[in-house]
Design goal:
CATH superfamily of the largest domain: Phosphoenolpyruvate-binding domains
Distance between the termini: 64 Å
Oligomer: single chain
Strand order of the largest sheet: 7-14-13-9-10-11-12-8
Strand content: 15-25%
CATH topology of the largest domain: TIM Barrel
Bound molecules: phosphoenolpyruvate, magnesium ion
CATH architecture of the largest domain: Alpha-Beta Barrel
Length: 736
Amino acid sequence: MAQSGSADDRLQAVVRLIASNMVAEVCSIYLLQPDNRLELFATEGLRAEAVHNTFLALGEGLVGTVAQTARPLALSHAQQHPAFAHRPETGEDPYLSYLGVPLLRSGRVLGVLAVQNATTRAYKLEEMEALETVAMVLAEMVASGELVNLAALHEAELVDDRAMHHHGVAISEGIALGHAVLHQPRFHVTKIIAEDTGEELGRIEEAIGQLRAQVDAMLSGDNLGRAGEHREILETYRMFANDRGWLARLREAIESGLTAEAAVERVQNETRARLMRQTDPYLRERLHDLDDLANRLLSHLVGVPLTAAGDDLPTDAIIIARNMGPAELLDYDSDKLRALVLEEGSATAHVSIVARALGIPMIGRVEGITDLLEAGDAVIADGDTGEVYALPSSEIVDSYSEKARFRAKRQAQFRELRDKPAVTKDGIAVSLTINAGLMVDLPHLHEAGADGIGLFRTELQFLIASAMPKLSEQQAFYTEVLDEAGDKPVTFRTLDVGGDKVLPYLAHAKEENPALGWRAIRIALDRPGLLRYQLRALLQAAAGRNLRLMFPMVAQVSEFQAARELLDKELARLQRLGHPRPLDIKVGSMLEVPSLAWQLDALLPLVDFISIGSNDLLQFFFASDRGNPRVGDRYDLLSPAVLSFLQHVVAQCGVHDVPVSLCGEMAGRPLEAMTLVALGFRTLSIPPAAVGPVKAMILELDAGKLADFVNERLSLPDSSLRSQLAEFAFDNKIPL
Ligand code: PEP
Ligand code: MG
C-alpha cells in the first residue's frame, strides 16, 4: 500500500493482493460518490474497462445492499439473492459466491470491498473478519487521502457532499463564523493490526475497568445531574459497560488480530449499523449512549482527555456537542469561544443560561450534527435564526460576513452611547440596569454602561454547582459580585428554584405543573434554613456597604412578611454576635403573580421597591405556558389587557411612592421598552446586550406623546397594539 504510483495503480495492487490471499477469483473496491452512487474503483478479475464505468445506487445489487445496510453479506449462490443486479459490462456472470463488507469509518459507509468465487463457496467467519479488517485499513487510507486522492478526483462534489444547512432552535443570539471543535473528539484509529494480541487483550481489560469505575463514580458521585431522567441515562451506561455481549465482541475482535482501539471501533461500527436500522426511537437514541461509551473507552485506551476543552483551540472555536453541562462550557477558554451548537439543548437549560451570559450565540436541537461534522470544518452559526451552515459556500460566507460586519457596526454605535445618560427627548431619565447571575456577567455591567444590576439571579450559582454551595462559598461569591460592581447597585434576588430550575441535590417531587408548583419563595418558607443561610451570606458580604435584595414569586403579602421576618432574625443574629451590618438595606418584592397586584395597598407600605418579573407574570396572566411553543406566542404582551394591568401597578406604586422596575425579557426589546416608558416605568432591568439598542430608542422618544397615544388605545378590543406602536416608532423616527 505504501508503494508509489497513481491512485488507481495502488488500488489495483491492493485488490490483486487481497484476491490472491483470499484465494478468490475476483476482488473489487467500490467507493461511495458524492451523488450517493457506488463507483467501481478497482478490480481484479472483472473487466478492466468496467473500472470507473460501473455504478450502483445505494440499495441496488449486492454491493448497494452492503453499503446501505452497512453490514457484511456472504452468499454461496449470489445470483439467487433478491437484490442481485446483473451488470454485463463487468463480466461477472461466471461467479457464484460473493462476500462483501462495508468500508466504514466513524460509522459512515465510504464504500464496499467484495470478493467473488467461481464455485459455490461458504465463506468462513474468519474470512469475513479478515476482509472486514482489511476494509477498516482501506477505509482509513481512503479517508486520509493516502490511497486515493479523493479530493483531487472529486473536489467540488466532495465539498458539496458534506456542505450542510441545518435548522435548529435559536437559543442565544449572535452570529459566529468559525471552525468546528468537537466537544468530545472522535478518535480515528490509525493502528489497526496488533503486534501482540495478548497485550491488546490486557489493554482492553484495563480500559474497561477504568470505564466501569468512571460510570460508577458518575452514578454515585456529586456530579449526578438531576435525578430521574439523567440517572436513567447513566443507569443505561452502567448496563452497557457491564454488558457481556459487548465485552465478548470486543475480545473476539482483538483475537482476530486487531488492536484494542480498532476492536472498539469495529464493534461500534457494527452496533451502529444494527441500531441505525431500528425504527424504535428509544433504541436509536441508545446509539448515542453507546457512541459516548465507546468514545470514553477509546479515551481511556489512548490516554487523552475526553473533551476538547483543554486542547489547543482555534481562535474561532464553534463547539459542537450532543449536550453538555454549564460547567463544561465554562471549561473552555472564553476568548476563543465563538458559538455553541448542540444536538439537544433548550432555552432554559443551564448551559443556555451560561452561553447567554458569555454572550456567545447558541443553537440547539440540530439533529445529527455531531456525526456530520469533522473537527476543523468551517461553520457558520446564526443564533438569531437557529441556522447552522457547515462547509458554507463562498456566497454564504460573504453574506454572513456582511451580516457580522453590520452587527459589529451597530455594536460600535451602541458603545458610543455608553456614557450618555438614557434621557428621552422630553427630558425623562430612564435608568437602565442589567440582569446577571454569574461572575462572567460582571464585566458587562461596565462595558454596557448600565446603572447597576437590577436582577441578580442568585440561583445560577446553585444550579451550576454539583452540591449545595456552602455559606462561605455563597458569601465569597456575593462579596466578589459587590466588589466587581463597585459603586453600582446590585439587587440580589433570593433563591428562585423549582419550576424549570431544579437543583440536583435538593429533593423535589415530580409535579404536574412545576411552574405553578413548589418553587421560589414557597420553597424558601418551607425550608427556612435555606433562605436564612442565603440571607446570612448576603448580609455578611454586604457588611459596611449597601444591600438590595428581593424575594421571588410572592403571591400574597403574608409571604413577603414571613420572608422579611427571617431577614430580621438574621439581622438580630448579626447584632448579637457583634458583626458589622450593611450600611443600608433595601428590601423589595417581585411581582410575578397577578394576585399580588390586588394587594398593593397592603404590600407597598412594607416594601422599599417592586420589581415586575414579566416572564412569569405574563404566563400566569394569560394562563399560557411560556415554554410551550404551541401557546408561547399566542398572546401578545403589547395587548391592551397587559398594558392596562401594568399601568395599574405603576399608578399604585406612584401613590405609595415606591419605585417600580420591570426585569423580564420584554424590557430588553426596544418596542416593548418604549411602551413601558410610556406607561411610566423609569427603571428597566435588561440583558446586557439590550442596553445599547434600548438606550438608542430612548434618546429619540417623546414619552409624553407616546403616553397619550397608548392611553387612547387602552380600551380598544384589539388583541395587540404591536403594529400601531411600531407605526408610531416609524413615524417618529425612533430606532427599534
Ligand atoms: C421573570 O419571571 O420575569 C423573571 C425575571 O424571573 P425568571 O425569568 O428568572 O423566572
Ligand atoms: Mg420569574
